[in-house]
Design goal:
This protein is about 5% helix and about 45% strand. By secondary structure, it is mostly beta strands. The chain has 2 domains: about 5-85, Elongation Factor Tu (Ef-tu), domain 3 (Beta Barrel); about 95-160, PRC-barrel domain (SH3 type barrels). The strands form 2 sheets. The chain has a 6-stranded antiparallel β-sheet with strand order 3-4-5-2-1-6, with no helix packed on it. The protein is elongated and about 60 Å long. The chain starts with a strand and ends in a 10-residue tail after the last strand.
């Protein structure tokens, strides 16, 4: 599992005090208020978050310590910043999307079904996109279908319901 999880992408400067606009890659941009630090992708560089606020459902306005002008803020544009996994808490039975991507999927009988390539957030429930040899299948992420998720071993067991993996 990755220690640093991609959390935001800096898109532009916001105002004259060194703030930036950022795409929030978390459930809600307001979740960023709980973080004190963001990191470069490998964790080499650390950015102390002074404040964060939601701008829309997917965007946030961030202010980092030591970035106090538009000239300094513009240097961050295009950067993807990460949160340390240890700074984030998930409810029981929830997973980070980044941990689900790449899981090998199997039926309840052990038949290989493919690999998760994307997680679509639909509102009612997430949907896992599974690629099996270039063919895409879509599986609802609900307890009656997802039998077991084993992030440590890179495996997910799925109830292969009739019609779910039809290749026609």
């Amino acid at each position: 599992m990755k220690k640093y999880l991609e959390t935001v992408k800096i898109t532009s400067v916001h105002g004259i005090k060194g703030e930036v606009n950022a795409e929030a890659w978390c459930d809600s941009p307001s979740d960023l208020r709980r973080l004190k630090t963001l990191y470069s992708r490998g964790g080499e560089k650390k950015y102390t978050l002074e404040r964060a606020r939601a701008k829309s459902d997917t965007m946030a306005i961030l202010k980092f310590a030591g970035i106090d002008s538009p000239e300094e803020a513009i240097k961050l544009r295009g950067m993807v910043l990460c949160a340390d996994r240890d700074d984030l808490k998930l409810p029981e039975g929830s997973y980070f999307i980044q941990d689900l991507i790449g899981l090998e999927c199997f039926s309840e009988t052990g038949e290989p079904l493919g690999k998760i390539t994307d997680v679509l957030e639909t509102g009612a429930n997430d949907v896992y996109e599974i690629d099996k040899g270039g063919k895409k299948f879509y599986v609802p992420a609900v307890p009656s279908v997802i039998l077991k998720t084993d992030i440590q071993n890179g495996r997910m067991d799925i109830l292969k319901m009739e019609g779910l993996f039809d290749e026609d």
